[in-house]
Write a structure and sequence with these properties.
elongated, mainly alpha, three-stranded antiparallel β-sheet, 5% strand
């Protein structure tokens, strides 16, 4: 029975993506407010508004207390599994995250507590923990973990070995140890890496330390689907093993996964090497040189990066646009505030109004800069002009002997304002010129 089947069109999401997707949907229903500008956590919903939402879906009343059934919570409140022949076990499983007492009913206190979970900075892990903590004890046992994970599409694609050393390290040799929330978060994080390694071992039937390109693509699409972009997915087979090999070694396999996990660090290396220029194209040597300060990225990972980037544009260089095609951070999974402030890599992606405002901003800055510069050097320009234009009635007799003499006589006879006589016409010509240059050149 597929109790983790995704309600969307993609029924092949990993467990991690299932949790993210469902958690995001619930959060969107309970908390329509956007993320705080400088706060990692969501703003808490207004209790009165939350109560109004709760009563709208509460269909059970016991001793003057209202409750939402698990079915109403998932099918009516979240509008999931609304078909007539829906999977009841799936609905019960999803709603169990909000049913803390595990009695099949969700009280307002539980509804409110669940909203506080979704407001936490680590909401995704908290939500997943509550799904696996089926008896509400505050701990996750091996039996609970195995029961839930065995019913996922992920396990059905590539079976996980629950007798592995990985499981013994987390739950003990006899598998009797229960783990806390913090321990569970690390287990869930490491689980996908362990699952990928096990999948490699299962496909390496000859124990040669190599698998075929098709097996490699299958593992990545099933277990690491949350890390691969459409571009990477399209070229998985063609890049598998490197530029000449047709088999994928374990070293290549781990480097490929490590690269996808470290794409944010790859972006940092790129911006460091390009000095922030998102249009620069870097060679492999330039990238390797700047990657030396980041020991998490190996030469093999950089080799894979360039091999992936060259599938469409074999120039021997990598650009920021190439990196973004490989980076697994998808917009729909990003917090709202990050989407709102995300920079564009090409000015043409900005709207007409934004481009107009930016041009006006640059024009103003250019005009101010030109005016300040012209004002600062105007006394020098005035002295130069008067020296060039001075006339004398007698040969060898001049009004100003040199620049310093001219400056001194102007200051003595005309005052400080004399040094800036005629400044306004100069500004009328210089300010627009500098403004236009700055606006056009950027």
């Amino acid at each position: 029975m597929d109790i983790m089947a995704a309600p969307s069109r993609d029924n092949r999401l990993s467990l991690f993506n299932q949790v993210v997707k469902f958690q995001s949907l619930v959060r969107g229903k309970l908390l329509p407010t956007a993320l705080c500008e400088f706060d990692a956590a969501l703003r808490r919903a207004d209790p009165d508004a939350l109560k109004e939402v709760f009563l709208k879906y509460a269909t059970v009343v016991r001793d003057d207390e209202h409750f939402i059934t698990r079915e109403d919570f998932v099918r009516h409140f979240l509008c999931l599994h609304t078909e007539e022949n829906y999977n009841r076990e799936t609905v019960n499983f999803l709603a169990s995250a909000a049913d803390y007492t595990k009695d099949g009913l969700i009280s307002f206190e539980e509804f409110h507590a669940f909203e506080s979970v979704l407001s936490a900075p680590d909401a995704m892990y908290l939500f997943a923990f509550q799904l696996f903590d089926t008896n509400g004890s505050g701990f996750v046992s091996f039996d609970e973990f195995e029961e839930i994970f065995m019913h996922t599409d992920l396990h059905k694609e590539v079976q996980f070995n629950f007798d592995s050393n990985f499981i013994r390290l987390h739950f003990g040799k006899d598998k009797k140890k229960v783990i806390t929330y913090l321990e569970f978060s690390q287990l869930l994080h490491d689980m996908l890496e362990e699952h990928a390694v096990q999948a490699f071992q299962q496909h390496d039937r000859s124990n040669s330390g190599q698998i075929t390109a098709l097996d490699f693509a299958h593992i990545m699409k099933s277990i690491k689907s949350h890390l691969i972009t459409p571009y990477v997915k399209e070229h998985l087979v063609s890049v598998a093993g490197g530029s000449t090999a047709h088999l994928v070694s374990f070293q290549y396999f781990t480097a490929f996964n490590s690269l996808l996990n470290n794409m944010e660090l790859v972006k940092k290396i790129y911006t460091t090497a390009s000095h922030g220029n998102l249009h620069a194209e870097l060679t492999k040597d330039e990238f390797l040189h700047n990657a030396q300060m980041f020991t998490q990225v190996t030469p093999l990972e950089i080799e894979i990066l360039f091999h992936l980037a060259q599938q469409q544009h074999p120039t021997g260089r990598v650009s920021y646009a190439d990196i973004m095609k490989i980076a697994p951070l998808v917009v729909e999974k990003m917090p709202y505030s990050l989407i709102a402030v995300q920079a564009v890599s090409d000015p043409s992606e900005r709207g007409f109004l934004i481009q107009t405002l930016e041009s006006a901003y640059r024009f103003t800055l250019g005009a101010i800069a030109g005016a300040v510069g012209a004002t600062a050097v105007y006394p020098i320009d005035l002295v130069k002009t008067r020296l060039q234009n001075q006339r004398s009635a007698f040969v060898g007799e001049v009004m100003y002997k040199n620049s310093f003499d001219c400056f001194r006589k102007v200051l003595r006879h005309e005052g400080l304002r004399g040094l800036y006589r005629g400044l306004l016409p100069q500004l009328v010509g210089v300010a627009p010129e500098k403004a236009i240059k700055l606006t056009v050149s950027i």
